[in-house]
Structures are given as C-alpha cells and as structure tokens.
C-alpha cells in the first residue's frame, strides 16, 4: 500500500472527507453507532494512506465499502487490457463506475505509475506521530463527588505509525478517557505483507473478516444505503482507538498458488465484564470506561482465548471458502433469567463455523454464507444478488435468516439488530442515475424478530424505507433530499419514525464551500427539527483550512431527537444526537506545512440549551445550560 498523498479527481469535482461522510451516512438513526464510528475511523485511516489503483489487489479494494466485486473486477480488467491508468479520470471509461463512486475513490486511491513505485523489500521508512488533547470548559458531577471519577477531566491519545509504504507497517497507540486516572487503553501491531507466498502477517492487535461476515465480520461495516454486502476484506491491523472490537495475538495469510489462500489466527485478551455474586459473567462490557471504583472492578476480569482459520478458493469468477473458530472464556457466561437474555450464549466454550460461496461475472454477482454455532446449536444464512445492467443502475436483493439460538462473538453482517441473531428479513436496494446530474438511492427492508427483544414480550416485525435524490444544479451546486420511514416495534407498540433531510451544497470557489441543512423527525405525534449552516474556507498560501458549523434545534422529546455530523479533527469522526431546545456550534482550524509533514489543529464546540439549566444525568451531569469544549492536535510525518 503506497504512502503517496491522494489527489482529487483530475477532472471534475473531487470529494472531501466531509463530503464523503455526508453522502455515505443515510441511516441517521445509527449515526452514533459504535461500530459505525469504528468503521469511519478505519476509512479515515485508509484515506490517509491511499491505494495505488494500478497495483491494488482485490483484498485492498474490498476494504472500500462502496465498491462491489463486479466494479473491482472491471477496474482490474481495464488495467489488464489498457495498461496502467495515468489519472483517475480514466475511471470514466470503466463501464460500471458511476460518478459518485469515482468521486469517492478520489479519497482512497491515486493513479501511480510503476516508475514511481519503490520496489525494494524495505524502502524508505515513514514515521507518523500524532497526539490529541481534549479540554472540557465545565465540570461534570463525577468530578465533584468523592465517589465519582478517579481521574481528571482531560482526554488524551497518542498514536505512532511506521511504514515502508509497501511491505512493512507497525503502530502503537495509548489513550486515556476523561475521568480515568491512567492510560489504561493501549495496543500495538506489526504487519508484514506481500512477501513471496506470504500475503499478510500481523502480530499484536488486528481485525479479521471472511465471507459475508457471519462467522468473522470484523473488517468492514454494512450499510443499507450502499450496495449491500460483499466479501469481507480478510486480515487488517487494528489502527483505530477502539477498546473492544479487535483481537490480540497473531494472524497470517498464505497464498497457496494462484487461486487458494490459507489463514490462521489466534488471540488472547482480557475483557471487561460485570460479574454475578458467584463470579460468573453476566455482561461483557463494551463501553471501555474505567473512571469510577465500580468500573475499575469490572476492568479485564475475564480472559478470552480464541483459535481459528480460513481457507478460500477463487477462480473464473467463482469463490468458495470455509471459516471456523474455537473460543474459551476463563469464567462461565451466565447472562441471567430475563426473557430477552435467554438466547444469549451460556457456558465457557464456544465454536462457530461457516461456508461462504459466490459467483461474479461482469454485471451480476451472487454470494452467500451459511454458518452453525455451538452456543445454542443455531443456524444462520445470508444470500445476495446484485445486477448492474449499466453504470447507471444497480439492483440488489439480500435475504437473511439468523435463528435466535445462533451466536457468533465476532459476526457482523447486514442486519437490523446489532449482531446477526434472532432475525430474518429481505432487503431490496436500488442505485440509479436516470438523468445526467441526478442520482437516486432507494431501499426497502422487511425484518422479523421471532424471539422477544429488549422491552418486548412477543415476536416483532418492522420495515425500513428510504429514498434519496441528489441533483447537480450546476458544476458547483447540488441539492439533496432524503425521506426515511422506519416502522419498528418498541415496548410492545409500533413506532413509525418519519425523517426528512434537505441539503444545499455550494462549492463557491476552490476555497469556499457552503452547506445548508434542514432535518425533520416525527414519531407518534412528537416532532423535532434542526437547521444548520456549514462553511469551509481554505487559505492556500499559509496552508490554513477553517471549518465552521452553526445549528438550531427544537424537538418535543428524546424520541424525536435529531442526529448531526460535525466537523472533526483529522483522523477523527464526530456526531451527536440533540433533543430539547437549543443551539450548537463547532469551529475547526487546521494548519499544514507546505511539505505536508507538520499539522496543527484546534477545535472549539459549544452547546446551549434554552429549556433547561442542567444537562446529562448521574455522574455525567453538567449543572449548566452551556457546554464548551476545546481540542488540540498535532501531527508529524517524517
């Protein structure tokens, strides 16, 4: 993977990171989903280390969630027939690459010719060091009580990456959350890749995914708004700051000839858990906080050992693979007697195995995976078909069935629930460009949960519909309109959520970008709206980028809350939900040296409520209507 900077598309309007996030996130209800935040951090890391599209492998391109197998196949076919791309503008000649995909690719790829590639085993080493400090300008209740937080209110993280740009990559990270006394989150990895038959080998922290993600799904995230599902991207190092969703140990993938690959992986790590009086695990914790005495007592009190492997074959458009793992905890899992917890895994030892399969040829892709788990003797299957009659249209259908007694601790695939369990459904997805300048995305998802979920006493059903249109008024102006209806049972009653979003974007010049957004949310007679204005200005000569956002919101209650994506520091993502009556503001300033080696950033955010004099609950409560935060970050690349 090359280290070159990623230029924008040489012809036509390129995409910034903020543009990509706005267009990529259509399911606003999941805007603060932890898995989504981790996924966006992974993508941000990829955008900082873009791929050379002329040398990128299938596994490299599978990391990009908006590329289908058919599109990847056609990119490789074009390069095979016509030679290396000189610019990304040549993507216009690839039949299935539409304008939106080409713009998004400009963030993650560049066209580099062979003479600019360093072919040495260990070329020039690149060092990347970044540090971030968050300073709240207020006190939470946890800082003012003797039984509250044990540490100060500052958040700090430090990251270091070493890479030769092609074969070697290593990294180190440490982090202290606000309220914690120590830097208790840390990790490191070293990765070697593309050395003879060795495709990848990682020691330390990593994530891994195969097939459709039913057994191992830790290398990508699935969104209903993009063409659904694709084969997982295999092994990748853990580069983000997440404290939960990774493995710690070693993993390796070998190429056995042109068509077969073999992977083996192992992990041992300590997990946070809430224990019963008998010392059994009631809940595996995923928040990563160790601020109070009780949170510290739950810190790393259960060990998890895991061993697994995968074998995969592909050729002539077909692919076939098998994945399995065995896992043992140092304490027995006992989730409790509540009805919704009765299907959670129990015991110490677990195993899951599955077979994935598929066929891709030019304009059609079929794939699926079927798996079995020993946790409850359950089965699961997910199958999909995508048809692309032209670059203007892609129609996809996904069928899924996850029995209530199926469970995989590492499974992640397209689902309404947070994990592939207790769900069946069908999703129909359409991407279209019926007219020049007009792009449409629509989906309809029908799902059923046979076992009662949390706050339910019976099985439940739901539907999710979305229609989004984006139209280019001119070369510099676009408008976007989105409507989403989600009907989902909650507390034994059906809740219909209506969401509308209107957005106008103007690239006033090469330096100015303005964006006006209006969002509306209605559920069971309660309504909420938010108006926001974003502005970005680039001062090229000093290397300054200024970004600002102002917003006003008014909702009837928490159920009608509005989700907002905020300007963020480099290598970070920021989103939040708002309810009640108030205003928000965010301002960022970024300076980058001419040689791109030095970067210094600052961020200020404010929140002001008009309908309350305090915010938050418990130890997180702030006894003020105001909330102000400052963040600073520096980065050095050598």
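Q: What amino acid sequence fits the structure above?
A:
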């Amino acid at each position: 993977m090359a280290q070159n900077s990623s230029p924008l598309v040489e012809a036509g309007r390129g995409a910034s990171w903020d543009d990509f996030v706005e267009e990529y996130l259509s399911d606003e209800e999941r805007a603060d989903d932890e898995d989504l935040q981790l996924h966006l951090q992974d993508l941000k890391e990829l955008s900082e280390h873009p791929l050379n599209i002329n040398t990128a492998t299938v596994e490299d391109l599978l990391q990009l969630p908006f590329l289908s197998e058919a599109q990847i196949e056609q990119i490789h076919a074009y390069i095979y027939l016509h030679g290396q791309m000189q610019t990304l503008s040549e993507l216009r000649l690839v039949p299935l690459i539409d304008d939106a995909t080409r713009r998004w690719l400009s963030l993650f790829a560049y066209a580099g010719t062979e003479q600019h590639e360093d072919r040495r085993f260990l070329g020039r080493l690149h060092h990347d060091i970044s540090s971030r400090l968050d300073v709240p300008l207020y006190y939470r209740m946890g800082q003012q009580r003797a039984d509250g937080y044990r540490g100060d209110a500052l958040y700090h993280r430090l990251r270091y990456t070493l890479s030769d740009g092609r074969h070697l990559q290593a990294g180190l990270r440490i982090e202290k959350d606000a309220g914690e006394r120590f830097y208790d989150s840390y990790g490191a990895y070293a990765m070697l890749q593309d050395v003879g038959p060795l495709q990848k080998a990682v020691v330390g922290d990593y994530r891994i995914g195969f097939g459709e993600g039913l057994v191992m799904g830790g290398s990508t995230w699935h969104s209903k708004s993009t063409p659904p599902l694709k084969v997982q991207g295999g092994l990748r190092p853990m580069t983000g700051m997440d404290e939960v969703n990774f493995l710690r140990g070693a993993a390796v993938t070998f190429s056995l000839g042109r068509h077969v690959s073999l992977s083996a992986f192992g992990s041992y790590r300590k997990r946070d858990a809430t224990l019963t009086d008998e010392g059994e695990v009631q809940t595996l914790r995923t928040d990563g906080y160790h601020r109070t005495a009780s949170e510290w007592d739950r810190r790393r009190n259960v060990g998890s050992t895991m061993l697994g492997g995968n074998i995969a074959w592909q050729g002539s458009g077909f692919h076939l693979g098998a994945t399995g793992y065995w896992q043992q905890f140092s304490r027995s899992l006992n989730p409790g007697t509540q009805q919704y917890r009765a299907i959670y895994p129990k015991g110490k030892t677990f195993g899951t195995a599955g077979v994935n399969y598929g066929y891709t040829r030019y304009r059609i892709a079929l794939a699926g995976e079927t798996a079995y788990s020993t946790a409850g003797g359950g089965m699961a299957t997910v199958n999909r078909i995508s048809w692309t009659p032209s670059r203007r249209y892609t129609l996809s259908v996904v069928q899924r069935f996850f029995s209530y007694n199926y469970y995989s601790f590492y499974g992640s695939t397209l689902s309404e629930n947070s994990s592939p369990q207790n769900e069946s459904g069908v999703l129909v997805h359409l991407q279209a460009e019926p007219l020049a300048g007009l792009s449409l995305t629509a989906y309809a998802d029908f799902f059923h949960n046979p076992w009662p979920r949390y706050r339910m006493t019976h099985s439940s059903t739901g539907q999710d519909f979305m229609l989004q249109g984006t139209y280019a008024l001119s070369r510099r102006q676009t408008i976007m309109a989105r409507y989403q209806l989600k009907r989902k049972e909650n507390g034994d009653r059906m809740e219909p959520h209506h969401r509308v979003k209107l957005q106008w974007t103007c690239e006033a010049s090469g330096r100015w970008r303005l964006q006006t957004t209006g969002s509306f949310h209605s559920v069971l007679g309660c309504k909420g709206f938010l108006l926001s204005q974003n502005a970005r200005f680039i001062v090229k000569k000093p290397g300054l980028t200024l970004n600002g956002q102002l917003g006003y919101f008014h909702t009837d209650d928490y159920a009608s809350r509005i989700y907002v994506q905020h300007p963020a520091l480099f290598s970070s993502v920021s989103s939040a939900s708002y309810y009640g009556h108030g205003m928000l503001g965010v301002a960022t300033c970024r300076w980058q040296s001419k040689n791109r080696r030095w970067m210094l950033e600052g961020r200020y955010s404010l929140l002001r409520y008009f309908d309350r004099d305090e915010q938050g609950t418990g130890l997180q409560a702030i006894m003020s209507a105001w909330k102000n935060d400052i963040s600073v970050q520096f980065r050095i690349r050598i």
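Q: And what stands out in the fold?
A: The radius of gyration is 24 Å.
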